[in-house]
Amino acid sequence: MIRVAFPTSAAAIPRSISTAVSENIPKNQEEDVRKVWRNADAVCFDVDSTVCQDEGIDELAAYLGVGEAVANVTRTAMNGNARFRDALAARLQVMKPNNEQLEQFVNITKPKLTIGIRELVSRLHARGTHVYLVSGGFRRLILPVAELLGIEKSRIYANEILFDKQGNYHGFDTSELTSDSGSKDVGKPAVIALLKKKFHYKTVVMVGDGATDAEAAPPADAFIGFGGNVIREGVKARAKWYVTDFDVLRKDLEHDDSSDDE
């Protein structure tokens, strides 16, 4: 079942307006994104509510018995337009997972992959396209996801929870690019800029369900909005191409661009 997430901040786009904007995006803009998608050197996927059906931090909070408390903190942070890093710190402060708890959670929890993502990633790999997981979530929770999808550990960009010598919670690594958002110098835009500079990719595509994914383009050459698990109206309005099924992306890779020029 697809969830519809309505805006919770004053800056968010009202549903009536965002729906109209999404429906009025010119078809040629969507086709431009499709062409970039079919010729991408690298594709970056968000993880929570995109590659996976759920939100990792919410699942971990529930496991720790503080699910509702963390949800309240998240709600308060969003309503106050808090920066991503501050909201993340506030949620972790409520959770305070120790290393043993984190490892136990990972060991008993099987990633809930979104339908079609295995086949899509496999197809991209077969084409020689480099696939990355870029998330504001936690690397330890994403490692099993990457393993299931055959994605190298080095192609994960996510946050790192820190522990002291006794294994107690000791904050998170603020030097990680994904530990903040809101400008081109941090978050997913900064990750993609780094990838382009480091590996000389000509074309990089970002796929995701959230606002932090949408803000990645530019420097990403295209953003594809994904609503297969939750539809965020503001994101849908910004996306030039919005899909709710990964099979749509996989099948589009079979399109022959040369036929368009005939």
UniProtKB/TrEMBL annotation:
GO terms for biological process: L-serine biosynthetic process. Pfam families: Hydrolase. Its cofactor is Mg(2+). This is Phosphoserine phosphatase. GO terms for molecular function: L-phosphoserine phosphatase activity; metal ion binding. The active site is at residues 46, 48. Pathway: Amino-acid biosynthesis; L-serine biosynthesis; L-serine from 3-phospho-D-glycerate: step 3/3. Keywords: Amino-acid biosynthesis, Hydrolase, Magnesium, Metal-binding, Serine biosynthesis. It is an enzyme of class 3 (hydrolase). InterPro entries: HAD-like_SerB, HAD-like_sf, HAD_sf, PSP. Belongs to the HAD-like hydrolase superfamily. SerB family. Its EC number is 3.1.3.3. It comes from the Eukaryota. It comes from Caenorhabditis briggsae.
